[in-house]
Amino acid sequence: MLEADYGADLAYTVARIMVVEHLRAGERSQHSALLAMNPRSDRIQTALTYARQNLRGVLSVEVLAQAAGLGPRQFSRAFRTETGTSPAKAIETLRIEAAQLMIEQSNHPIEIIAAETGFGDQERMRRAFQRVLGRPPQAIRAQAKAR
C-alpha cells in the first residue's frame, strides 16, 4: 500500500526499518533476502515472490521467467541488472533463509526441512549452509536450542 501511495523508495525504507526493529536470533541478518535484492520492476519482484512461495518446487530460469512474463534470456539479464546476482544465487539465498528459520523455530528433522525448502536432501543443504553461512545446519540448531 505504501508503494502504491508513496513510491517504492519509501516502501523499501519502511520495510527495512520494520525488519531491523525485529531482532533476529543469533547471527542472522537483520534484513530479509527478498528486501536486500530490491528489484526495481514488478516483473522481477513477481518472480521472486513466486520463488519464495514455491521453494519446494523446481525454480529454473524458465519457470521464473514464465512467472515474470519474460523470455528466459531477457529474464536472466533483467534479473542480474536489477538484483546484482544470478537467479540461481537468489534462489539459494531464499532457500537458506527459509531453512535457517525453520531450523531455529521448529523441531522438524533436518531431512524434512531440506525437502520443504527445495534443497532435496540434507547433504545438499549442508553444503549450501557451509558455503554461505560457514556452518552446517546442525550447528545452527544447536545454537538455537542453547538459547
Can you tell me the overall shape?
globular
How much β-strand is present in the residues?
under 5%
The rounded Rg comes to 16 Å
Q: Give the terminus-to-terminus CA distance.
A: 37 Å
Sketch the topology as an H/E string, one letter per element: HHHHHHHHHH
Count of extended strands: 0
Which parts are unreliable, with pLDDT below 50 for 5 consecutive residues or more? 19-31
Largest sheet data: none
| Separate helix tally | 10
| Global structural class | mainly alpha
Please tell me the overall pLDDT.
84
Instruction: Name the helicity range.
Output: over 70%
Commentary on this structure:
With 147 residues, this protein is mainly alpha-helical. The protein has ten helices and no strands. The protein has helices at residues 2-6, 8-21, 33-37, 42-53, 61-68, 72-83, 87-105, 110-116, 122-133, 137-146. Helix 4 (42-53) packs across helix 5, helix 5 (61-68) packs across helix 6 and helix 7 packs parallel to helix 10. The longest helix is centred in the middle third of the chain and has 19 residues, at 87-105. The protein is globular, with a radius of gyration of 16 Å. The protein starts with a helix and ends with a helix.
